[in-house]
TrEMBL record:
Residues the record lists as S-(dipyrrolylmethanemethyl)cysteine modifications: C238
Recorded metabolic or biological pathway in which this protein acts: Porphyrin-containing compound metabolism; protoporphyrin-IX biosynthesis; coproporphyrinogen-III from 5-aminolevulinate: step 2/4
Porphobilinogen deaminase C-terminal domain location: 222-291
Source superkingdom: Bacteria
Gene behind the chain: hemC
Lineage: Bacteria, Pseudomonadati, Lentisphaerota, Lentisphaeria, Lentisphaerales
Protein name: Porphobilinogen deaminase
């Protein structure tokens, strides 16, 4: 079988696509696999925050279109960039085992967020990261966009006292030694799907679907699915400061989620736990609790619509 993998051209995206390619070749060495690099809107617009560009799927739309146009057969994504709703005809057929899902504190001057002096400048363009920072620390944030390598270079250029990045991206690109501190997911809730790589394909491509199934990691896929339920329920996009994180331990689960105002002054948080068998649906439930408590107002202000 010949397969065309659609991927973004960033070093992290290429690492992930190459990783999937080699996993597929382990399953079937006779496969002929080609990578097709596609530039997305999120790659093109680098001078403003994703929240300002607005919309959903800034890193995936063009890639999904390539599959719908039969110019590619599968796409490899960072799950946190994939909107909760997929276009008709496409499915997420496999989610690989999760890498470290935490946010990472990276700095050349300080060892942890607690060490940052008042007014320190933290580079991040994520509303989720900024709102959690403002709520807990007396810091400022400044725009930081670009791929992982660019972001590290900007830190080294002394433009920020520290930056926050996903640990997974750093680890995959062998920058794990740049992580000064990994932020506790209980205090700094990750983005739905953070640290997980997903594979999307056309729903009617039965042969490929069967092949991709073999790469699916069941536990990761259950966790990411419930986190994505949350994202869907809050109208998930980069415009709402929110996070959701699920863990599984034996037969039980824990789920934590928040929605905040961009300045972190309003902060709604819910934790749930229970039997693993009851986990499906809990992402929607936790979102609805937050919405009922007041998150609805925040979301309406930011998205201009009710959820
Ligand atoms: N929004 C960009 C993006 N999408 C996925 C990752 C990291 C890797 C992952 O979460 O799997 C990153 C960079 C970052 O947030 O630092």
């Amino acid at each position: 079988m010949k397969l065309r993998i659609a991927t973004r051209g960033s070093q992290l995206a290429l690492w992930q696509a190459e990783h999937v390619k080699s996993r597929l070749l382990e399953v079937d060495p006779s496969l002929e696999i080609e990578l097709k690099i596609i530039k997305t809107q999120g790659d093109k617009i680098l001078d403003v925050s994703l929240a300002k560009i607005g919309g959903k799927g800034l890193f995936v739309k063009e890639i999904e279109q390539a599959m719908m146009d039969d110019e590619a057969d599968l796409a490899v994504h960072s799950m946190k960039d994939v909107p909760a709703e997929l276009p008709e005809g496409l499915i997420l057929q496999a989610i690989l085992e999760r890498e470290d899902p935490r946010d990472a504190f990276v700095s050349n001057k300080y060892k942890s967020l607690d060490e940052l002096p008042e007014g320190a400048v933290v580079g991040t363009s994520s509303l989720r990261r900024a709102s959690q920072l403002y709520r807990q620390y007396p810091v400022k944030t400044e725009l930081l966009r670009g791929n992982v390598n660019t972001r590290l270079a900007k830190l080294d250029d002394d433009k920020y006292d520290a930056i926050i990045l996903a640990a997974a991206g750093l680890i995959r690109l062998e920058f794990g030694d740049r992580i000064a501190d990994s932020l506790d997911p209980d205090k700094f809730i990750p983005s739905p799907g953070q640290g997980a790589v997903g594979i999307e394909c056309r729903e009617d491509d039965a042969e490929l679907c069967a092949l991709l199934n073999k790469l699916n990691h069941t536990e990761t896929s259950i966790r990411v699915k419930v986190e994505r339920e949350f994202n869907l329920a809050i109208g998930g996009s980069c415009q709402v400061p929110a996070g959701c994180y699920a863990t599984i331990d034996g037969d039980s689960f824990e789920l934590r989620a928040f929605v905040a105002s961009p300045d972190g002054k309003e902060y709604y948080r819910e934790d749930m736990s229970g039997d693993l068998k009851d986990l499906p649906g809990k992402g929607t439930e936790i979102a609805n609790k937050l919405i009922a408590r007041g998150a609805a107002e925040i979301i309406k202000d930011l998205l201009g619509k009710d959820v």
